[in-house]
Give the backbone structure.
Amino acid sequence: MIITEFNEKRCKACGLCAVACPKKIIRINKDRVEINGLGCAELISNDCIGCKACATVCPDIAISIYREEERN
Ligand code: SF4
Ligand code: SF4
């Protein structure tokens, strides 16, 4: 299982990750931007393929992607 995490303290809602994602599954939650001034990118589906395009393009190193082994 691929885990994609966004650090909301780092994310400034620039949207570059959403543009870079080939699956188009990242959006910027505008409500959060208005509440605390920090953006919060988030996934809108579980279709992440772990390509790391989002993490590579993020200027604030706000995205972590890792694979979690399935537990039986
Ligand atoms: S590229 Fe980084 S800083 Fe920009 S919206 Fe995505 S997670 Fe936030
Ligand atoms: S790792 Fe790839 S598919 Fe997954 S959210 Fe990032 S850009 Fe999209």
In short: The first strand starts at residue 2 and ends at 6. The pocket of iron/sulfur cluster (ligand 2) is lined by residues 4, 20-23, 25-26, 48-54, 65 (CB under 6 Å).
